[in-house]
Amino acid sequence: MRMRTAFPILCLLFAGLAQAENHTVTVSSNRFSPAQLTINVGDTVTFTNAGGFHNASADDGSFRCAQGCDGVGNGNGNPSNNTWSATVSFDAPGVHPYRCEVHGDMGMTGTITVEGAAPPAFTMNQHGIAGSWANAATESQGVVMDVFPDFYAAGTGLLFGGWFTFDTTAAGGLRWYTVQGQVGNDDSATMAVYQTLGGSFDSAQATTTHPVGEVTFHFDDCDHASLDYSFTDGSGRHGTIPLTRLLGNLACTPTGSTPGNPGNYLLGGTWYDPASSGQGLVFDVNATQGVLFAAWYTYLPNAAADAGAPAQSWYTLQAAVSPGFTHVEDVGIYESTGGLFDQHADTTTTRVGTASLVFNSCTSLTMDYTFTAGPHAGLSGTLDLARLAPVPAGCTL
Fold this sequence. Notes:
- InterPro entries: BlueCu_1, Cupredoxin.
- The chain has strands spanning 22-28, 31-33, 36-40, 44-49, 56-58, 64-66, 68-69, 85-89, 94-99, 109-115, 131-134, 142-153, 156-166, 174-184, 188-197, 208-219, 224-231, 238-245, 269-272, 280-286, 291-299, 312-320, 327-337, 348-359, 364-371, 380-387.
- It is an all-beta fold.
- It folds into two domains: 22-115, Sandwich (Immunoglobulin-like), CATH 2.60.40; 123-387, no CATH class.
- β19 (269-272) and β20 (280-286) form a beta hairpin.
C-alpha cells in the first residue's frame, strides 16, 4: 500500500451546513413589521424605511441605524424621513430590544431574539494551519501537517499530518504515525491515528496501514494548539501535547481568510514517490524567514516485510531559502536519537546526509539524496515526488 492510500476513501455523511439568512423589518406607520423577530446566529436583519421620520436604535447601544448604521463606514443612524435601508449582523445569541428614537414612547418598538451558539473564534478548515508544530519540552519530535480546505464539501476540509517521535523506551528507537480526518469551521477536530508498517527504504515493498488510536486537535490561535491522544494498540498511551508553530505564520487567520499571497509557502505540504511504498515527506516552507523544513517518513534499508515498528525510520531536512526559490542545494538531512515518546530526554541530532530539491511545478518535485552516516550511510538516489493531494489555491511556479 503506497503512501497515497493513507487517504482512505471514507464513507462519510455530512450534515447540511446552515446558511446565514437575511430578514427584513419594514419601518412605516410608526411601527416595525414584524415587531417580534426570531433569527439564528449569523443571520442579518435589514431595516427598510417605507415612509416617515424614523430610525432603529438598540436599547443596549449595539446598533443605531437609518441611513446606514453608526460606526459602520459613513453610516448615519440619526432619524430620517428619506427612503433608507440598513443591515445589521447578529453573531451571538441574545435578545435585542430596539425602538425608534422619535416614536418609541408611542409604541414603535421591536425585539430581535437571536438563537443558537456563537460561532467559534477559530476555524481549522484553512490551509493556513499547515506547517510544523512541536512541544519544546519534548525534544526532537513533532507534527508536520497539511490541510485541504473544503476537501469533502463547503466547510468540511481534510487534515493530514505526519507525527515523528520515538518509542516509549530509548532502546526502541524511532517511530512515526500519520493522522488524518475531517476539519470544519471549528477550533477542534477529532481523527484517527495510523501506523504504516512493512516497508523498506526507497522501495516498492508493500506496506499495511492500520488505525492505532485517536487524536483531537484544538487550536487556540494561529500559533498555539494542543493534541490530545489516546492509543488503542495495547500500549495504554494517552495524554495532551501542547503545540507551538515552529516557523512563522504566513497564511493563517482566525476566520480562515488568507491574508495576501503567502508565496512559496504553498510549495509545502505532502509529497511522495509513487515508486516507494508507504513513505514520503511533509514540507513546511517559509521563504520570508528563509527556512525550509521537512520530515521524511521512511524505513530502514532492506527491512524485512515483517520487521514491524522497529523498521520505521525518519529524518528531518532543513535548508536556507530565498523568496521565489525553485531549486535548493545543500539541504541538510538530520537524524535524531535518544528520544522518548512524549517525554523529555537528552536527544542528539546529527547531520547524516545532503539533499537537493528542484520544484518543477506545484505538483512535481525532484529530490536527490546522499547519506554519509547513520543506518542509511552510503545510500544515494533520486526521488521523483508528486503532491499527494490537491494543489493549494494560489500556488504558481
